[in-house]
Write a structure and sequence with these properties.
This protein has seven helices and ten strands. By secondary structure, it is an alpha/beta fold. It has a single domain, classed as TIM Barrel (Alpha-Beta Barrel). Strand 9 and strand 10 form a beta hairpin. The termini are close together. The structure holds the ligand O=C(O)c1ccccc1N[C@@H]1O[C@H](COP(=O)(O)O)[C@@H](O)[C@H]1O. Ligand LGQLAAA5 binds next to strand 2 and strand 8.
Length: about 210
């Protein structure tokens, strides 16, 4: 089975659905402007029954040290996802500060955006290749937008990576086929409205991703 990350979880029933369906990563969103945002205490409660072998990932956008430390004091995350404009040096700092592996999200819209995959591959533990958000977007991710997956075809990566951006149960197998991704990450595609996850959509997505890998 390929690796699936279900991001932006806010309810225990959806955590359970994701775990039972075989998700390897669960994403908890700490970006205040997101409709998927949770507090550290809420994330801690959601993580309480997550079994070993399933990683709890904290999603942050340009976090300062205090936010990272305060969140980790309550929620024992396994990994940090950085989804803002963090420079490579900040990725290294966050790794050192938290002692946790870091997933760095890279927005892709055109071939020029691909150079960053190499630069961040030198410092991050895992890469997350997402669609670049539109200029006027409120959210730097989680917009349900895909990019031209053919840009990644045959691309050598320095680190393990997840494909994200506009993935759904309907398109994930094709996305995996075109990019060679060994893992995928989804938020909007398993929701009925922004921030409203759906257990059936989570199960359908994981089954479809499994069929594609
Ligand atoms: O989901 C959010 O609200 C979000 C907010 C800020 C940064 C990143 C966010 N989500 C990440 O974006 C990918 C792609 O989302 P989608 O499937 O296209 O909706 C998602 O998997 C999250 O990792």
């Amino acid at each position: 089975m390929g690796q699936v990350k279900i991001c932006g979880l806010r309810q225990a029933a959806h955590v359970e659905a994701a775990v039972h369906a075989g998700a390897r990563f669960l994403g908890f969103n700490f970006f205040p402007r997101s409709p998927r945002c949770v507090t550290a205490a809420q994330a801690a409660a959601l993580m309480a029954d997550v079994p070993p072998g399933v990683a709890s990932v904290g999603l942050f956008v340009d976090p300062d040290d205090a936010l990272l430390q305060e969140t980790l004091a309550l929620a024992p995350l396994d990994m940090i996802q950085l989804h803002g404009h963090e420079a490579p040096a900040r990725v290294s700092e966050v790794k050192q500060l938290t002692g946790l592996p870091v997933i760095k999200a890279i927005g892709v819209a055109a071939p020029d955006d691909l150079d960053a995959l190499w630069d961040y591959g030198l410092v991050a533990d895992m890469l997350l290749v997402d669609a670049k958000p539109p200029r006027d977007a409120v959210l730097p991710g989680g917009n349900g937008l895909a990019f031209d997956w053919r840009l990644l075809s045959g691309r050598k990566m320095l680190k393990p990576w997840l494909l994200a951006g506009g993935l759904t149960a309907q398109n994930v197998a094709e996305a995996i086929r075109l990019t060679g991704a060994q893992g995928v990450d989804v938020s909007s595609g398993v929701e009925t409205a922004p921030g409203q996850k759906d257990s059936d959509l989570i199960r359908d997505f994981i089954a479809a991703a499994d069929g594609g890998t």
